[in-house]
Amino acid sequence: MVIVKYALREVKKHPGKYLPIYIQIIVSVIILGFLAVTFQKAHLFAEQMEYCTEHRNMYATIDRSDAMTIMNTLSTEESNIPCQELYQYITERANVYIHMINPVIWNGEQVDILQVNQLFCELYQIDVKQGRMFLNEELDGHIEEEKAIPVLVGEKLAKKYPIGTKLTNQALDQSIFEIVGILKDGAFYLNPSTDQEIISLDSSFVVPWIPKDSLNSGYRNINLFHVMQLETDNPEVLKEISLKSKELGLFDLEFISFKEQIEVVEEYYQSVYMRDCAMLMALLLYCIVGSITMLLQYINTHMRYASIHMLCGAVQRDISLQMLVQISTPILIGLVLVLIVFRNIFAMIAGIIFGIILLSIILAIPVFIWNRLQVSQIFKRYD
């Protein structure tokens, strides 16, 4: 304990000598943490994209009907029956991934909620880090009138809308919504038919799709068929669906495969991650070289000083412990900052490994010099 106090007092007494190396080490630890987080995100993204691209035979829906025909078809309540029939026809022949945005009014503010079904959640691995996911009956659209509609919020909205918050839709049917879970960081989905970018859910409200006429026009919702994603191994099924839609007097549907679009998205974001990692690695290498250079200078300036103490009765263990305390201080500061900024165990592990390497250098070099040279020789070499 006395050695620790003495080592820290030495740092406090000569801040100009220690501050440059402290800053260099702290910055190195933080950059390494940032690099570790970036690598982890790239790895998780690759895993998620690999899972998504396993669904090779997926198709996006395109409606070739003119706008007037679409509006006339969906504006009448009578069209709800043929729309529901078409929906059931599609679900019997293909896997349907529903994601449709619908506006609601909460506390006088219009908010867009993303309505999804179970297959969509499974495809994009939508899950929560706190609270609960949707129940199976909720994802099937079976929610009793008096019960609140469950809502998952993105992590950026978690503070404003904590779990348990209840909200009333001040438009249409006065539906009650309740926040039941917070999405995992980095949750996303793709809509390659209209966009080649990842659509983040960090600032989104996600609810199970409920075909409720007073809430979202039920099966007549214009977004239901127009953003529907289908998966089928038989392209003939798509032709049958298109013919069925025309037979019911609804839409002129076409289907396009978005396998290539998904691959474009994956390649683009992988290149972005690789570019970021390359820049961080170059910066980290610069910091590490600077840190090692300063460590060598630190050792050079302390060898003569340490030898004087050894002549006065100090032992190698005490001198080594003093150096260990002085260099571990900026490492610990860097690790604390990494924990506060990133809150990521992988970043902490990377920082700890980096710290162990630096401390090993600090311990190994002086011990090697002491074992190789006499104290008198050290005085001459480090004069």
Keywords:
383 residues, alpha+beta, 2 domains, seven-stranded mixed beta sheet, four-stranded antiparallel beta sheet, 13 helices, 58% helix, MacB-like periplasmic core domain-containing protein
- Over the alpha carbons, how many angstroms does the gyration radius reach? 31 Å
Termini separation: 31 Å
- Report the structural category: alpha+beta
Total count of helical runs of at least 4 residues: 13
Strand proportion, as a percent range, falls in 15-25%
Largest β sheet strand count, sense and barrel closure? 7 strands, mixed
- Approximate helicity band: 55-70%
3D shape: elongated
Count every beta strand, where a strand is a DSSP E run of 2 or more residues. 13
Element-by-element helix/strand order: HHEHHEEEHEHEEEEEEHHEHEHHHH
Low-confidence stretches: none
Overall mean pLDDT: 81
> From the structure provided, what is the oligomeric state, counting identical versus distinct chains?
single chain
Tally of distinct domains: 2
Characterize the structure shown:
The chain is an alpha+beta fold. The protein folds into 2 domains: 165 residues, no CATH class; 202 residues, no CATH class. 58% of the residues lie in helices and 16% in strands. It has 13 helices and 13 strands. Strands 3, 4, 5, 6, 7, 8 and 11 form a 7-stranded mixed sheet that branches. A 4-stranded antiparallel sheet has the order 2-12-1-13. The protein has a two-stranded antiparallel sheet with strand order 9-10. The longest helix has 53 residues. The protein is elongated and about 100 Å long. InterPro entries: MacB_PCD (IPR025857), Macrolide_Exporter_MacB (IPR050250). It comes from Candidatus Fimimorpha faecalis. This is MacB-like periplasmic core domain-containing protein. Keywords: Membrane, Transmembrane, Transmembrane helix. GO terms for molecular function: transmembrane transporter activity.
